[in-house]
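Notes on consecutive records. When two proteins share a document, each keeps its own sequence and its own token line. Never mix them. Below: protein one.
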Amino acid sequence: MRIKVPTALTESHVKYDGEAGRAWSAGLPALGERYLEEWGLRLDGEPRHGVVSLVLPVVREDGTKAALKLQPVTDENATEAHGLRAWAGDGSVLLLDSDPATGTLLLERLEADRSLSSLPDDMEALGILAELLARLVSYPAPEGLRRLGDIAQAMLDDVDQAVKSLPRERDRHWMKWCASAVAELVSEPGDRLLHWDLHYDNVLAADREPWLSIDPKPLAGDPCFDLLPALHNRWDDVLATGDVTRAVLRRFDFMVDRLGLDPQRAAGWTLGRVLQNALWDVEDGESELNEVGLAVAEAVRQRT
């Protein structure tokens, strides 16, 4: 076997899935070799990895550089190929091949070491991200994706129980406030193709275009639901301004303007994203809400 699995990736799988994760990670070399043979690929450098995926730089038989992405099939990534196929490279990495049964993707090769996080000017980076997001959400969601309406209703169903797990009154107040914002919007969830995780590290430099998005978690819904990752990304830049609320609203207003969104709806669905993250934290055993999320909520409430 020529493929070596980074220790950090195995540790990540064990952290989240225990021995099943260890077993899946152990099977990665064989899985990679299978697609190298089936798709006529040869290795072309050291592997990269995220939290769950192993990415192998490869070259196709025609000499095209590509990236082979190996990942377990989960609710988050099961429809990744659907979204990439719909965008067909318009603002996103280009999908070259896929196998839905294993979640394996063959992708256009991008510059893995150069993301928007490398740009020193925060607002320049945000401008690039906003332009990409505007292109992505201009597409109608294809059939078969998870739908924001269902996810939002499930969040609302979980709020009462989650509130009981929070000892701080401040946290209980904000969870209820965010839930009230979602309750006002849940009947109009939207039908656009959302990325769901567009932050600076998910935008990489490329040859075909200067910058392209990667790693979508495709969702059918309102583009207003896609703002939060860019609001709390590079948080040190927000803190460095000395005025967190003003800095968050500067980003928020900038994106709302660039995407032509209704500020009140954008604020409401952003509170929905804060609620989603809070519910995940409670599910993971946290007894206090994330301070960054609370700071964002406090800022965007001014636009509700």
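Protein two starts on the next line and is unrelated to protein one.
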Amino acid sequence: MQKMSTERSLLQGKTMGTLWSVQIDGTPPPALHAALQAAVEEIDQQMSNWSETSDLMRFNAADVGVWHPLPAHLLCVLTEGLSISRATGGAFEMNVGAAVRAWGFNAAPINLDALQAASAAPHIQASHALELDLAAGRARKTADLWLDLAGIAKGYGVDRLAEVVQSFGVDHALCAIDGELRALGAQANGTPWPVAIERPDSPDRAAQSIIALDAGAVASSGDYRHFLTIKGKRLSHTMDPQRAAPLLDGPASVSVLAPRCLQADAMATALMVMGEADGLAFAKATGISALFLMREAEGLRASGTGVFAA
């Protein structure tokens, strides 16, 4: 096992249109940075909604009813996504890709014809029309689906960073992709990692609050980084699956603690879709620690469950 010192090292690189980072106490093994970069590039190549050649996009374009080979990491995320979708009553939904594209959240302009088609089409849950054959490494659609993994892929990427770090014998690390983080143990001096919950609408990404993380993950979903403003109305990039349209009057952000970052990422998205009242009730009933930040005339109002209840 690697011996840690008080020296702090920061490894970082680019992935998924943003940055990944890993903080460790001690001198990193020489090959660690390259292994971390390769791990997140593999996830991006499999799950990107921006590259038409990604494994996900090729599956989206595949014919209905035809078994299609898929790589292991993508199959893992699809399996977890289906499980979380069922657990949240469809609040977390992967079949929102058509709506995301129609509303211009994939760098293309809003497509009015596509908007009309998306709103008129009956909503099909991925859990009802996606079949996975894990033993054979393949999947098929029984109806027309266009999957989008923006609400879960970064979290899984963070978990992959953590797995790589652990494989190098490092026991004290903080792994992150953008605002999704996972701690591997406390800092080498025994104190937890201080992790900021970002304040929505802050131009300098100031902290709303600080939590202490010595194991597990935290992820946030919000409407303040990627949104449209139409007739003075803020439209979040998070889609309401039932309407095939951006959320209206939802939380400014939801942050969730979970053992793995994939779980925290997907559940934060689900609670955004549920909204404050239903989301708080679901979080309390299922033992989830969640923080809701709501916009009001006087400013932000916080409500929470679990460790955020205070």
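For the record: DSSP finds nine helices and 17 strands in the chain.
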